[in-house]
Write a structure and sequence with these properties.
about 260 residues
Length: about 260
Amino acid sequence: MYKNLFDQEVDIELPIFDGSEKVIGKGAQAVVYYCNGFAYKVYNDDYPEEWIKFEIFIQNEVANTNLPVVKYYETEVPNIIKMDYIDGITLGSRMRLEQYNNGIRDIILLEKKIHKVTDLKLLSFSSFAINDINSFQCNWQWKERAINFLEDIPEKNNLIHLDFHVNNIMYAEGNYYIIDWINARIGNPIFDYARTYIIMNEFMHPESKEYQTLLLSDREIDTSFWEKAVYVMALLRLKERRTKNTLELLQRLENK
């Protein structure tokens, strides 16, 4: 079950694994363990300490809102973060294993909830995106067009997740919890929707079409800059992960 410890004072402590810990997640830079009611994210020894502190800052800034998120705690070990633990499944698993059919609608509802949060002390997405595009070794025409589109899209100060997909949404006891906020920035929500669409286009291609249809028909969402935002986010995605679907999507938009 979800361990809601937001209202408790938690001392900074050195986590001591007693043999009962188990691996619950693994990535290129860190392994996540469950131990005694908490999750522990153990980074590789060479992972920069300032990046870990930055991740903790972002997570706790978001945790101060009314969004359903976990809280992070520093430990006495610089490369280990202690986290509230959610005993549940991802939305992706719920859709796949339980044949849950409203997952795409739930994604959009959660995104709209995120975007209602404003004025957090986070970095600007637009500034980050311009720097990232300029440093990308690719077709200069793509870069020029992406920066022009980026400048066309109005600046806003909404919270945006920027890695929002079915495996970063946990489901436990009838509730959703949003995880993995390391990419969070403030900016125009259209970039968040575009990023979600591009990730789904890579891994859940049929569902990405449903997502786009529902999104563009939602009168509460301003989608007037949709294709420009998709173009910008597709180019940024290619910088981190070059896939056939994203490249084809960018080329289709280039030919319009």
